[in-house]
Amino acid sequence: MNKKILSMLFLLIGSSTWISCSDEEESIRQPDRQEAISTETYYANTFGKDIMSTYYYWNEDIALDLLLWNIETNGDPIGTVDRIRYHEGEKYIDKWTMMTDDMDSFTSSVDGVSTTYGWNLTVYLLSEDSNQCIGVVNYVSAGSPAEKAGLKRGDILLTLNGEDITTDNYTDLYYSTTLASSLASYNEETNTIQASGKEVELSAVTMYEDPVLCDTVYEFNGKKVGYLAYTSFDLNAIPKLIEIGKKFKSEGIKELILDLRYNGGGYVITENVLASMFAPEANVKARDVFEKEVYNDILTEVYRQEGISLETPFMTEYDYDAIDLHVSTKDANIGLERIYGIISENTASASEALLGGLMPYMDVQLIGEASYGKYCTGLMLSGEDTYTDCPEEIKNWGIYVMVSIYQNAAGETPCMPDGMQPDIEAEDNPMLPYPLGDVNEPMLREALTQAGRQYEEKDVKSRSLSPLYPRMEVPQKAVFGKRILLPSASLRTNKTFQ
């Protein structure tokens, strides 16, 4: 964003808030500085209020809360952002805007680097009459402690440090730094869990987790169908994804099974890269509209006055010095005619946007369960991003703030408000002994069936586990539910801190 636009932006919004009020209200809202809060908290209040007043999509809906946000006395800016996010009564419409006092760690975890065992689990409650749980491995990351311990999809964690896994301690599977667990196996015929006698001991490590789990090509009925299981729209994976696109193109596939059942979102730029490989080549060459963003009145006016389009076209060249990204998808458009999208309640944000953005241009069939329903785009801003003279105390504070609602070329947001609905229902069953990419894995099997592959009924069973094994709510990775604009595309400011 150039300086002219930035200057215009802050002429429009004024000083620390866009809300006007009387002198009497101002004296009530901002009394003489008190020592009840620290200087850092005062600065963080100013930062949070500036961002929520200017960039937040629902800024007018929370105008009263912003008016009552006293930067001189409020002792909990993080909690205030959480509390005033757009809501209707007790129901929070915006479940995603959040503030942090450690932006470096937050950014790192969103980029796929975290302290982890390297596994993705589903936790099931064994009985409604008991608090005992089991952890079932959905997948493990390459090179992780979980993989090195020999764990794989379908393995069952029965105990935790010598005790049963329960509703009271199961989050230690995510947050502890070391653990020991005994394993069990699933008997499909009797639908029971049986101890296997095996044990594992793990120590968490800080590592990058490659979001590409599997890419392969199946051939049947005289055609080839590609399969890509992918878990996060991070930036580091972009070159690898382009190489996969080139491989699929060289194989001559016309249909792709895109497995996003565990993909909670990520960066818009990665979404755009994938769209340029998956959309019909004619639409990409014509630079047709892929998506549109709808902003609040302040940002919309800035763009209008500068004649900047709110539409994102398909493109093939991506050059971003700020993140050292210089790639081209010119030779990676696959030539697809149809996509089978595997979705679940863990499919969110950029995943939903990618599928929805392609729908006006090609046949997209959805298989699985209803997706999460994240229909807005966020901006990750630190204090240092926001002010040219940012106080040292808040340079590492940050906000992930919702700035827009995204739409496809038809003006639709297919996941709004409660998620995309599958065309063909199928349930994920990680207990069955089939790795991702195995043609007998139930959700992939359904997608391949829709693509024309024939099975004999005896090949696999796919009994639903839901009635006997209710799923517990589990902690999500930092990237879950996020659709993030690149820093270079952000509305950065040249505002002076006040």
Characterise the protein shown here.
It is built from 15 helices and 26 strands. The strands form 7 sheets. Strands 5, 6, 7, 8, 9, 10 and 11 form a 7-stranded antiparallel beta sheet that branches. Strand 19 (317-320) and strand 20 (325-328) form a beta hairpin. Helix 9 (238-251) runs parallel beside helix 10 (268-278) and helix 10 (268-278) runs parallel beside helix 13. The two termini are 22 Å apart. Mean pLDDT is 89; it is low at 13-34.
Keywords:
15 helices; 26 strands; 498 residues; seven-stranded antiparallel sheet; six-stranded mixed sheet; alpha+beta
- Round the mean pLDDT to the nearest integer and report it: 89
| Cα separation of the termini | 22 Å
Largest sheet: 7 strands, antiparallel
Which secondary-structure class do the elements indicate? Answer: alpha+beta
Low-confidence stretches: 13-34
Radius of gyration: 24 Å
Number of E-state strands: 26
Total helices: the number is: 15
Helical content (DSSP H or I, runs of 4+):
25-40%
Shape: globular
Percentage of β-strand residues: 25-35%
